[in-house]
Structures are given as C-alpha cells and as structure tokens.
Amino acid sequence: MSTATKPKHIGRNISRIREFRGMKQEALAIALGMSQQYVSTLEGSETIDDERLNKIAEALGVSVEAIKSFSDEGVINYFNTFNETDFSNSQGAFGHHDQYTFNPIEKLIEAYDENKKLYERLLESEKEKISYLEKLLKEK
C-alpha cells in the first residue's frame, strides 16, 4: 500500500472553478484565444504546464495557487462558516449591528422639511430676480 498522495487533477479544478464563476467553456475559450474543444481537452488533463495555467488563472480571475489547491470540500467548508455565526448578540453574519439609532421616518420628514426650506429660498431668490429685471425694464 503506497502512502504517496495522488496529485490533484488540475483540469477538473479548472472546470469546477469555471462553473462556480458561471462561465461556459466557450467563454473561457474566447478569453484564452482557443477553441472550446481545446478547453474541454484541458479540463480533462491531469496536468497543465505553468505558462498555460497562468493564462487560465488570469482568464478565470483567480490565482494559480487557487487552481492547484481547489477542492469541493474547501468550498463547502467556506460557505458553512456563514451558518456557524452566533446571532444571539444581535449581530449579522458579518459582524455588523442590525440595530438602528434613528427612526427612518423621522429622517424622511427632516429631509422633506429641508427640501421645502430650500425651495422657499429658491422661490424668494427668483422673485427678487424678477423684480430687479422689471425695475430695469421700467428705467428704459
């Protein structure tokens, strides 16, 4: 029985990352400047040379290391961490407080009142402008 670990299947990792990104093989092929059939062949390959892997990583928007170390279990574990958050202290999943220190209706009324005051000042300014222009016309 061998204790050597089996190398990761890079092509399968590329396929899974592409699927998670919502990208079709054809879109990846266009980004890489190759045919969809060739992308399919790459995704079936256990190993890929570093130069090509760099281009693929760039097209997928991930690092080469992310492709090499990708695992479905890691993705599942990552998303499960969001379910393990303790909500008993009234904090959201990302540690933000969900308690507001103001009443949104009061803020809306304040904004309305402020807009009303600004409109009244604008109206007064326009009245002054009209009266000034009327005065100029009468002088001529």
TrEMBL record:
Q: Tell me the ranges covered by the HTH cro/C1-type domain, including all copies.
A: 14-67
**InterPro entries assigned:** Cro/C1-type_HTH (IPR001387), Lambda_DNA-bd_dom_sf (IPR010982)
Q: In terms of domain of life, where is this protein from?
A: Bacteria
What CDD domains does this protein map onto?
HTH_XRE
Query: What name does UniProt use for this protein?
Result: Helix-turn-helix domain-containing protein
Q: What organism does the UniProt record list as the source?
A: Flavobacterium anhuiense
Its ancestry begins with: Bacteria, Pseudomonadati, Bacteroidota, Flavobacteriia, Flavobacteriales
